[in-house]
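cache lookup: miss for this entity combination. No prior model stored, computing from scratch. Input as submitted by user K.M.:
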Amino acid sequence: MRDEFEEPQPPALKGDAEAGVAEALQRAEAAPLLAVPAGIQLLNRDFLTDAANLPDGSIDLIVADPPYGLGKDYGNDSDMRSGEDFLAWTRAWLDLAIPKLKPSGSLYIFCTWQYAPEIFVFLKSRLMMINEIIWDRRVPSMGGTTRRFTSVHDNIGYFAVSKDYYFDLDPVRIPYDAVTKKARSRKLFEGSKWLELGYNPKDVWSVSRLHRQHAERVDHPTQKPLEIVERMVLASCPPGGRVLDPFMGSGTTAVACARQKREFVGYEINESYCAIARERVSLAANPPPPVPRRSKAIIADPTAQA
Ligand SMILES: C[S@@+](CC[C@H](N)C(=O)[O-])C[C@H]1O[C@@H](n2cnc3c(N)ncnc32)[C@H](O)[C@@H]1O
């Protein structure tokens, strides 16, 4: 593992004559894609050994998606703990992360029903619990377990440092469709902000998991949908604020921050996941120009008879 994830540099230009004009042009075009915006830090480091370098009270929002203790292969043994061993490790990193929050800060933690009760009880001894969000992964019905009900959700704990925590509902409101709007057009509802801007998302979030064919999917086994993480960032980090992701994976939180103009610091021990994160953030910050639409002009057929 490298100490810090170094920015990949394009190979040095040898001169257009030698490299060929076409190749040089290609490189020049590709160069901006490598640019990670200032304010986004992608660290190929272990959060537990490196957390001390992050100043206390400097973070607005923590989005934590740690190994779940279910034996996933992240190219390392980080998800091989279980039972009390896993819970002790979870308490250890939470004790390192929580002091990084500002008094108005908050934390989301992804976990599973197997460990959510213990993790939430522990977090309630340190922070204020705001919500439990159920992420319904929209798993299609396909047989499933036979000795209990099939589990199709992840648990997300949402906690804050104090009752003065930052929360902005407007950017995450869900617009009403035209039919509902019309149905609520009675005088009583006229001018209602919620009717115009949309409603508050409920605490069950139905968002499809990223199956292999999904357009967003990269090479990470437990990549989270951008839609979920972006909602957290928009609601719980002020514009220009700073987000910490102690277990960055493929960089979904970093992408949300690049898109929504928040600062970001993330840790990941697997170097190839860091590379994926870098590529995703670069693309989010420098999206390729849209493909020009094909002209619908009818080209005259020279063979046609007059
Ligand atoms: C559940 S995944 C995160 C997925 C991420 N949210 C995404 O959308 O791609 C957890 C990640 O934590 C990394 N990890 C495990 N232990 C770590 C540690 N001590 N410090 C930093 N990263 C760690 C793993 O390699 C794995 O990629």
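stored under new cache key. Residues 46-48, 65-67, 74, 76, 78, 220, 222-224, 247, 249-250, 252, 267-270, 273 surround S-adenosylmethionine (CB under 6 Å).
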